[in-house]
Amino acid sequence: MDNLCLIVTGKVPQAEFFNALKPVEAKVVSKGALPPITRPWTTPVPPFETTADVDISFPSDDEEVGAALLGWRGPKYGVSNPFVVFYSYLFLFIAFRF
């Protein structure tokens, strides 16, 4: 089983619940092991080969204001990395600069 979650609310007798669950569990187990999967966002990101400056026109009633979305893949969660603080300050600088 992979990522199976049951939420039971209300007053249900424990024995009755587990008896009702037995056929479901048997059906899941009868299907066998799941094939291995590659988790998304876990492979290394290839480095950029070139840089580019791009002007993007967008329709708007007010041509003075636009929206931008910045994102990047950082270090693995839970790994101590001094650049995480740098990225935080860089984001704040960009977000409040304009």
SSE arrangement:
Blueprint (H helix, E strand, L loop, with lengths): L13 H17 L52 H15 L1
Helix content: 25-40%
Overall pLDDT confidence: 78
Main pleated-sheet profile: none
Q: Give the overall shape, derived from the CA principal axes.
A: elongated
Alpha-beta classification: mainly alpha
What's the end-to-end separation, in Å?
Answer: 49 Å
* Element-level helix/strand string: HH
Runs in which pLDDT lies below 50 for 5 or more consecutive residues are none
In total, the number of strands is 0
Strand percentage: under 5%
Number of helical regions: 2
Measured on Cα atoms, how large is the radius of gyration? Answer: 25 Å
Walk me through what this model shows:
The protein is mainly α and 98 residues long. The chain contains two helices and no strands. The radius of gyration is 25 Å and the shape is elongated. It starts with 13 loop residues before the first helix and ends with a helix. The mean pLDDT is 78.
Features of this protein?
98 residues; mainly alpha; 0% strand
Give me a quick take on this structure:
This protein is an all-alpha fold and 98 residues long.
